[in-house]
Write a structure and sequence with these properties.
The relative contact order is 0.25. The strands form two sheets. This protein has a seven-stranded antiparallel sheet. A two-stranded antiparallel sheet has the order 3-6. The radius of gyration is 18 Å and the shape is globular. The longest helix has 20 residues. Helices cover 32% and strands 34% of the residues. By secondary structure, it is of the alpha+beta class. The protein contains four helices and nine strands.
């Protein structure tokens, strides 16, 4: 089987600023035919997307996958809810932490895996307070200044 080049790498940069990541997982996504073609073209966005549980299954909402331009009569809804594929142990662990500790699950990165399937990196995250965000900005500024000096 020929390997497909992994050129698709869509990140949610805002999530790093708004959340502190505690644990990360790689999940598969249940997609329809034209959705994977749109992802391979890079027509996807993770802004404002989040994960939630329904009937002990994990779904992602507001993951925007643009319509495939060459599709004839069958076109998908760009913002539909998509099921995420994880093992039962991982799902139970995430469900327990979300319910007990009030954490959230945030999509971080969308990419094409080795076998050509779309994968989504998700993170168990805790929301940052305003002063945490200011500390991060201060650290980035200091690192930038240090790199300019040398």
């Amino acid at each position: 089987m020929a390997k497909i080049s992994n050129t698709v790498n869509i990140e949610n940069r805002r999530a790093k600023f708004d959340f502190q990541f505690l644990d990360t997982y790689t999940a598969g996504i249940v997609l329809k035919g034209t959705e994977i073609k749109s992802i391979r073209e890079g027509k996807a966005g993770l802004a404002d997307s989040y994960c939630f549980f329904r009937n002990e299954e994990l779904f992602v909402r507001n993951l925007h996958i643009g319509e495939y331009q060459n599709a004839s009569f069958y076109k998908h809804d760009p913002l539909r809810e998509r099921k995420l594929l994880l093992s039962r142990q991982e799902l139970n662990k995430l469900l327990k932490k979300v319910k007990d500790q009030g954490l959230t699950i945030v999509p971080v990165k969308l990419f094409i895996g080795e076998a050509g399937y779309a994968k989504l990196n998700i993170a168990l995250a805790k929301g940052k307070k305003e002063f945490d965000k200011r500390d991060d900005i201060k650290k980035k500024d200091i690192e930038r200044e240090m790199s300019r000096k040398f």
